[in-house]
Amino acid sequence: MRLDDKTVLITGSGTGIGEATALRCADAGAAVVSTDVDAEAAEETAASIREDGGEATSYELDVTDGDRFHEVVEDVAAERGLDALVNNAGIGHPPSSVEDTDASVRDYVIDVNINGTWNGCHAALPVMKERGSGSIINMASVGGMLGFPYQSVYALTKAAVINFTRAVAAEAGPAGVRANAVCPGFVDTQLTEAFFAGREDPEAAREEMIEEYPLRRLGEPEEIADCVAFLASDAASFVTGHALTADGGYSST
Ligand code: NAD
User: Fold this and answer.
1) Which end of the chain, N or C, is more open, meaning fewer C-beta atoms within 10 Å of its C-beta?
2) pTM
3) Which residue, by CA, sits nearest to atom 12 of ligand 1?
4) What are the residue numbers of the active site?
């Protein structure tokens, strides 16, 4: 599965799943546009790709800023064309019941996870439709498919991402543009570390969670990156409107 001659823009690629996706896409031959609210982290990812002989640039991009998203996408489209957009940037929140969740937490998680994904599609769709091709990959979660107690805002945003992706696929398909979501289970990144750190006994909570995974382990960022690279590639040319679950079997039990 190759991504030669393709340009892939990834949000939140300074660390975690986004960083692994950037490296995987570069390995497969893509020119990578690494973006993150943390400009230094985005550039570190791009620099490590260039050091390995790949092609990469970086931009500071806060996905909640729709105007900036348009600016970056238009710049990339003018320079090299845009073949794939990975709306990966996303955040969690400390565990709390619905009634104890502060409205400011709710609004910020919605802003990054939902509006950020919307902003990316809003910016990329005109460019991709005009070219008559493109692939959008939105990072959802099994948290958007199952009840996720004490993570209600996260669950609400990721469910929205899944159904928004279907709407985009239905709308943009006639113009040759595909849109898919990826739904990871727990993956070892700083987001997951923060999730367990919020528990009374983080190590015990992690072990308990692992027991609920048929594969008896959490995922690695590279395993999600492989799913994204597949959806970005021509190997997935007839796949659109799909939510690809990569959760070690968690949602099937
Ligand atoms: P992470 O916290 O390790 O990395 C997130 C990256 O996004 C960071 O580089 C951060 O700087 C960046 N970011 C945060 N807010 C941003 C903003 N407003 N604009 C641009 N960049 C921003 O997270 P991760 O675990 O790699 O998660 C990546 C995606 O995968 C998220 O959408 C997350 O919800 C989803 N996901 C993660 C897991 C998991 O277990 N780690 C499971 C399911 C889904």
Assistant:
1) C
2) 0.98
3) 12
4) 154
